[in-house]
Design goal:
single chain; 117 residues; alpha/beta; Rossmann fold; 3-stranded parallel β-sheet; 43% helix; globular
Length: 117
């Protein structure tokens, strides 16, 4: 199984990373493939720009290359795992930005065309 893992915490010595590392160890022991995106350390840009919003209702929208790459990584996975702390009763803003930019109408239409629920 191929797992897309997204981690959202600025400190790599955090409980969040300890949980992620234990999860990864278990996945490797069972011979699963893991594609890791560390939102803070892999350079993900959380700013939502005009380009991100342009033509947002068009299901065939042409996405920026960095977003296109993330869409492809999500679609290539059999499972998605999000590892993050709860801050002020919610997810970190970095993870919210990732979901806003990547999990959009274009992704949902591509997932539906694969008949994946």
């Amino acid at each position: 199984m191929k797992v897309k893992l997204v981690v959202a915490h600025p400190r790599q010595n955090s409980l969040t990373f300890a949980v992620m590392n234990r999860f990864i160890d278990g996945m490797k022991e069972n011979h699963h493939e893991i594609d890791i995106l560390d939102l803070y350390h892999d350079g993900f840009d959380p700013l939502y720009s005009l380009e991100d919003e342009r033509d947002w209702q068009n299901p065939n929208k042409q996405h920026a290359p960095v977003i296109r790459k993330e869409l492809d990584r999500v679609l290539a996975a059999d499972a998605i795992v999000l590892v993050f702390p709860i801050w002020w009763y919610n997810m970190p803003s970095m993870l919210k930005a990732y979901l806003d930019k990547v999990w959009n109408m274009g992704l949902l239409n591509r997932v539906n065309s694969k008949k994946v629920l």
